[in-house]
Amino acid sequence: MEAVKRGACGLIALLLVGSSSASLAEPQHNLQLAEQDIKAALLYNFLRYTQWPHPPAPGGAVLVCLWGRDPFDGRLAPMAGRTVNQRRIEVRPVRAEGELDTCALLFVNAEERANWPRLRTYLARRSVLTVSDYDGFARAGGMLEFAEVRNRIALRINVAAAEMADLQVQDRLLRLASVVESE
After folding, report:
1. Contact 153, 27 (CB under 8 A)
2. pLDDT at 17
3. pLDDT attached to residue 125
């Protein structure tokens, strides 16, 4: 686990380059980060390095939605109220498909793996960045998957899934991820 933390700290350092937030930049110096702390910081950066076709209206919020139990155990709370691309971030749980329409990013808890095919169908052609940490998520049509490779946090990205949702993932993020295709 210690190797996971060290490897992820380097990844966070790369993603946080240029971040105006000192509080998110601090974790790169702390090797005692929990895995979920690292993933929470990465979610913020996914928002920074993704472009949506229709940004929220001026003053509108960027919604980070959680499907299922919150695996971050409150670690996303510091993200709420911050800004990304001059928009305030809100974090909220979602329980029904109709609530997904306003989400910019949807994190699907690994415990909800059985619900992913239904959610994927609902989200088809909607501009919602989908993220999870269960093995095979990106190959199953999800966009970003947290993975563990050689005891380190790694990213897998399904570029085709992002393009189908009319999302543009910046090269900065693409360089840090392994590209996979849907099965």
Report:
1. no
2. 34
3. 86
Q: Mean pLDDT of residues grouped by 10 in the chain (183 residues)? A: 41 38 38 76 94 76 95 91 90 95 96 97 95 96 93 92 95 89 83
CATH number of the domain that 69 lies in? 3.40.50
| Domain region containing 138 | 2-179
Say how many domains are in the chain. Answer: 1
> b/e map of 83-107 (b: 16 or more CB within 10 Å)?
ebeebebbbeebeeeeebeebbbbb
